[in-house]
Specification:
Layout (H helix, E strand, L loop, with lengths): L23 E6 L5 E6 L2 H16 L7 H19 L4 H21 L3 H4 L8 E6 L3 H6 L4 E5 L6 H19 L3 E5 L6 H11 L6 E3 L7 H10 L4 E3 L7 H9 L4 E2 L3 H4 L1 H15 L2 E2 L8 H9 L6 E4 L23 E2 L13 H7 L2
Parallel strand pairs: 3-4, 3-10, 4-5, 5-6, 6-7, 7-8, 8-9
Antiparallel strand pairs: 1-2, 3-11
Length: about 350
C-alpha cells in the first residue's frame, strides 16, 4: 500500500476523514478535594499527554485564582511546545486540563465560571443553529442559521450546488442572519470563486473556506471578496489567531474552547479580537456548558453556535453536557450553578468512560 496521496486524489475519502478515537474526560482535584471536569477529543494520542506528561508537570502547583490557571496554561504551553509542538495532541490536552481547573475553581468558590471571568457581558447569548435543514431549525425556535457548503462536490458543479443551497435557505428564512460553513477543504482559487458567487445573498459570514494552515490562501480569498470571513475552529493555541488578526485576513475568530487550549486560550483570543476590531464567535459555543459560559462572559462574542446536525431534540445535540441550559426562542442563558454547572458525579464520569 502506498501511503502517499496527491492533492488531486482525495475524492472519495470522506468516510475516512475523521480520526478513529473517542472523547476525553479529564478530572482534576484541588488540595481540598474539590474536583472539576474538562472535555476534549481524540483520546488515543491525548490521554497519554495528560496522564504521563502534563499531569505530573503541574500536580504540585496551587490554584487559588483564574490568574493561577493562566500561569499553568503558560507553563504547559511553553514546556509542552518545546517537545510536542504547539498544536495537535498538546492543544487538546491543555484544553481539557484548563477547563477542568476552571470547573474545579468555580465549584470550590461556589460561583459559575462566567463570574470567574468577570461576570456576564450579555443579558443572554444570541444563538444560531447549524444544519442543512433550516426549516427544522426554525421549528426548533432558531432565527439565525448556518448551512454547510456541499463541499464534497468539486469544481464548477460545487459552486453551483453551494449557490443553490444558499438560495434555497435564503428563500425560506427571509432576511434572517444566514452563514455558510465551507469546512476548510477547498483550495484558495475555488474558495475565492465560491465567495464571489455568494456575495449577493447578504451573508453574515462565510467560514473555513481554505485549509487552516493555508495562510496565503486566506489572503487570496480576503482580496477576492467583500464577504466577511470567519475561521479558527481548527487553529490551535494563540499564534494563528494573532497572525491572522494582524494580517486582517479574517473578520470573525472562531476558537473551539475544547480544542484551542481551554478557557484561558479563548479569553486571550477574545482580547486579540478586541484589539483588532474583530468579532468572536466561539465554535459550537451553545453545544456545551463550557462554550456557554465563555460566550456569556466575553463581550466580543456576539453570537453563539449550536450545531444541531441530525438531532431532533436539542438535548441530544453534538457534545451536549448534562444539566446545561438549552436555547429558547433563539437565546440562552447558562445555568448559574458552581463551575460549569455540569450535572454529573465522579461515578457517572467513570461509567460514561467505560
Amino acid at each position: 500500500m502506498n501511503p502517499m496521496v496527491s492533492a488531486g486524489s482525495r475524492r472519495g475519502t470522506v468516510a475516512r476523514f475523521e480520526p478513529p478515537w473517542g472523547e476525553v474526560a479529564c478530572v482534576v482535584t484541588l488540595d481540598d478535594g474539590t474536583w472539576g471536569l474538562g472535555l476534549t477529543a481524540h483520546s488515543g494520542p491525548v490521554v497519554p499527554v495528560i496522564n504521563d506528561y502534563l499531569g505530573p508537570l503541574i500536580e504540585q502547583e496551587t490554584v487559588e485564582s483564574a490568574a493561577d490557571i493562566g500561569e499553568l496554561w503558560d507553563l504547559m504551553s511553553t514546556v509542552g511546545a518545546a517537545h510536542l509542538g504547539t498544536g495537535g495532541a498538546l492543544s487538546y490536552a491543555i484544553s481539557a486540563i484548563d477547563l477542568a481547573l476552571y470547573d474545579a475553581l468555580g465549584r470550590q468558590r461556589g460561583v459559575p465560571v462566567y463570574d470567574l471571568l468577570g461576570g456576564p457581558a450579555h443579558d443572554s447569548i444570541k444563538c444560531y443553529a447549524t444544519s442543512s435543514d433550516v426549516a427544522k431549525l426554525a421549528d426548533l425556535g432558531f432565527d439565525r442559521f448556518k448551512i454547510p457548503c456541499p463541499w464534497s462536490v468539486p469544481g464548477p458543479a460545487g459552486i453551483a450546488a453551494a449557490v443553490e443551497a444558499v438560495e434555497g435557505a435564503r428563500s425560506r428564512i427571509g432576511d434572517a442572519d444566514l452563514m455558510v460553513d465551507g469546512w476548510a477543504v477547498m483550495d484558495a482559487g475555488h474558495a475565492a470563486t465560491l465567495c464571489r458567487s455568494l456575495e449577493p445573498y447578504d451573508l453574515r459570514f462565510v467560514e473555513d473556506v481554505v485549509h487552516p494552515d493555508d495562510t496565503d490562501g486566506y489572503a487570496t480569498v480576503r482580496a477576492a471578496t467583500s464577504l466577511r470571513l470567519a475561521a479558527g475552529e481548527r487553529w490551535f493555541g494563540l499564534h494563528p489567531f494573532a497572525h491572522h488578526a494582524a494580517l486582517g485576513t479574517v473578520d470573525v475568530l472562531q476558537p473551539d474552547a475544547l480544542w484551542v487550549g481551554g478557557a484561558t486560550a479563548t479569553v486571550r483570543i477574545a482580547e486579540l479580537a478586541r484589539q483588532h476590531g474583530l468579532e468572536l464567535a466561539i465554535h459550537c459555543a451553545v453545544n456545551d456548558a463550557f462554550g456557554q459560559h465563555l460566550a456569556f462572559a466575553l463581550a466580543e462574542n456576539l453570537v453563539g453556535e449550536m450545531y444541531v446536525g441530525g438531532a431532533r431534540m436539542l438535548a441530544n445535540s453534538y457534545r451536549s453536557t448534562p444539566g446545561m441550559a438549552l436555547p429558547a426562542e433563539g437565546r440562552v442563558v447558562p445555568v448559574d450553578a458552581p463551575g460549569f454547572g455540569i450535572e454529573i458525579t465522579l461515578d457517572g464520569i467513570e461509567k460514561a468512560s467505560r
